[in-house]
Design a protein that fits this description.
The protein is mainly alpha-helical and about 150 residues long. The chain has helices spanning about 10-15, 20-40, 55, 60-75, 90-100, 105-120, 130-145. Helix 2 (about 20-40) packs across helix 4 and helix 2 packs across helix 5.
Length: about 150
Amino acid sequence: AGTRPTADPSATLEKLRAMSLADATAALLDIIVDEIAQVLRLPAKEVERHRPLAEIGMDSLMMLELRATVETALHVELPTMSLANGITPADVARRVAPIVLGDGGQQEGVAGNLIALSTSHMATDTETSTTAEQLAAARAVLARSRAMDGPL
């Protein structure tokens, strides 16, 4: 990430903050897809926007690189679970947009962050998990969210 040229983060943020939530989400999706393409060394057009990052070919270290790059480029702090198993580039954009835009979209960001947190405690195929396992996962998510300060 440190070897490729970067745009002025302040100018990018200013443009994004002047957009509606939907437009900012679309623009962020383009930025995120470009970053994923850089990490995977693929053309951006080959990165599927609605396919989980793991299925695209990203491992946990690549996801951490993506997280660090997005945080640096957009001056935001992403929750650790924001790149949890099963998340797609479109999901990342939807979670980042409210953070970039500020409080205006905070409610949507909270929901997205709870989903990311819950995926870390649930099996990827919930149809095979028992009711007890699902309840345990829900309790773990609630306990973790109660322990957090500020927005999730």
